[in-house]
Amino acid sequence: MKLTINIIVLFTLCFLLVQCQKKEMVIFPTVIVPAGDGFELLSEYNFFKGKLSDLNPNIESGVMPYDLIMPLFSDYALKKRFIYVPEGGSIPFDTSAVLELPIGSILIKHFYFKNVDGSDQYIETRLMIRKIDGWFPEIYKWDEDHSEARRTIIGGIVNITASIKGENVMFPYSIPNQNQCKNCHSYNGKINPIGPTIHNLNKDYEYASGKDNQLTRWEIVGILEKTPSTNIPKWTTINDENTSLHERARAYLAINCSSCHRREGSAANSGLYLEYDNQDSLSLGFWKTPIAAGGGSGGFPYVINPGIASESILLYRMRAEEVDERMPEIGRVLLHEEGIELIRNWIDEM
Amino acid sequence: MNNTKKLKLSFSFLGNPDASGQKKAIIFQNYFLIFFLLFGFSIMSCSSDDPEIEEPELKKEIIISVGANAADAAQQAFIEVEEEFTIIFEEGLFSFTNTLSMDGKSTVVVKGAGRDKTFLDFSGQLAGGDGVLVSNSNSIRFEDLTIRDAKGDALKARDCNKISFVNIGTVWSGEPSIENGAYGLYPVLSTEVYIDNCYAYGASDAGIYVGQSDQVILKNSVAEGNVAGFEIENTTNADVFGNEAFDNTGGILVFDLPGLTKYGSSTRVFDNNCHDNNRINFAPEENTVANVPAGTGCMILSTKNVEIFNNNFNDNNFVGVLVANYLILNPSPSDPNYDPFPAGIYIHDNTHSMTGAVEVESQPELIQGIIGVLGLYGLPQPNVMLDGLLMSPDAVCIKEGSASFVNLNVSDPTFSSVTTEVSTHDCTKEALPAIVFEPF
Known about the structure:
Strand content of chain A: 15-25%
Distance between the termini of chain B: 58 Å
Structural class of chain A: alpha+beta
Strand content of chain B: 35-45%
Number of domains of chain A: 2
Largest interface: A-B, 43 and 54 residues
Distance between the termini of chain A: 86 Å
Helix content of chain B: 10-25%
Structural class of chain B: alpha/beta
Number of helices of chain B: 4
Number of strands of chain B: 31
Radius of gyration of chain B: 31 Å
Shape of chain A: globular
Oligomer: heterodimer
Largest sheet of chain A: 6 strands, antiparallel
Strand order of the largest sheet of chain A: 3-4-5-6-7-8
């Protein structure tokens, strides 16, 4: 009897040992958060496992893919988003503002286009790193062969040929410099993320392990504190006909304009504030006269001339192609046809 | 666990039979060290008397030279520059395709070789709404360079404290055009704004514009060929003096508009030479400034507490000084906190002359109407004009000697209350205090 127990114990020990050794062999490198400036190479963070260009998230070390309901339009760039929250950290559930991520968190946003032959054309990967003294942006520009992405602080304009909605389009794409990152991410002079709000995350995502609501999944993996089971706000997509034109337009303006056009943002001096919950008609642009628009007014008297989209500065600037007239001021060269259509209908139907 | 292990190791090291020998070596080393230190000290005390050995002070400069990579180098310098550094643009032409921006910096000087020697050129700009942009910064000075042909505003400073522009030019080449950017120098939402000896040409809104700011000195500068030469808007505590404005549509504007982050008050406009501002208005339609009549010396719109004195208003052929209420442009400002009635305006001791004829056909529609009304009464273009939308006559005090005067009293839609009687405005106001601050 004693012998059998001993043998069992021995066997179990051996088994555990083998298991441990096995685990050690396939252990994934932990994500590294730089203390000072960002690393020179994107690969140094260990966000991805295997070949870098596969962008296969290092889930085992806390990198999760995610998506937004209403994304920012960036010249039809395709985007992949990932979030890294360090072990033990979690995000308080808060619907009143952008989520407060714990120190050491990183938001990763990859920008790419499709080539005519259907292959990918990687452009840049942007990071927002939450350090002790706030958020810091970093930008990595991809090598042409997609083998690595390298840190740039000045960005630059790259001439791109991409297949967009079945058409071959050539245009100058702007990789922002660090100041331009802040221009849009400015909140009272400090840098803050824009996308990750409860409203904008409340959707299903196709995880490798199956489909799940993102908030639910974040709670399960322990990066989001307990979510209430009911009444979780949710934004709508640009083309969801089941939701009102108003809801869609306001969510669109919120994500595409209000990071600057709010009292705490870079365009505070314009007096035009387009946050989702702003209910003040003047600062929303209704019968609001232009201030410093210059040619950007298009010769029209009001930002929003209710019922007449074609005579509203808001639509004019979305349709403008001149450098000094187009909006958003940074990150848009091409026209966002679907967005223009949405805002046109919204104003016309007022 | 690891710590205890390490401790054990070090104890066993001490217990090593060789340890005593090593201790002796350490003691010997210590004597040597003390001797060396003393010796070193004596050398150092000698050398400190010798000025040749002193290290030269590190020059805190970043120099940008003309060349293919100059724009990138400049942008990198603007991002990486540290406190108390000077970024120097050498003489020559620097071309940019994107906004050149600085953010969150402190105590930095950006300096060229001279307003007519160093040019930052944005004629090939592909991205960004401004030529140069500085934001969220403290104690920044731009000096001795010219910014040319920006697609939008030439030099914008937003949310800055202690921002200075000295000997800076903002220019749009060629005949002034509606295609030009809105503002030349454009400090906004800033405090302790200092503008000295600057030059602005060709802006389709204002050559030098200060908006939503506090504590402003704008002096010794020249504006020509703009819609507005100088403009102070929704700003508190500004001194505008010693400037020359000519060949603009309007020379000097002090405006207050609704729906912005703050309202303006307390501006002094004095000792300026504001002449021959008769250029046809070329601002994009529906911008507020598009309503400024060609031939305007100085225009006050809805602002509170403005003192205008000792200026020359010569040959501005529509009016020397015009005081108006924003309601004349927009009867429903829809900002409940906004007071469109100008008040505390004191116009005194200015020089006026008017020799040329006023443009009519090219004037904004509203202005054509006013010219028509004056014609109806057989009145010449006046030196001082009010629209008459005031809470009380003493909202505007006028002590201008023999200057001609018209109050349009536009609240009477039949225009039968137009008057040249200035006596109701014969009052004085306490002089506004000078703006004093230590500019960077």
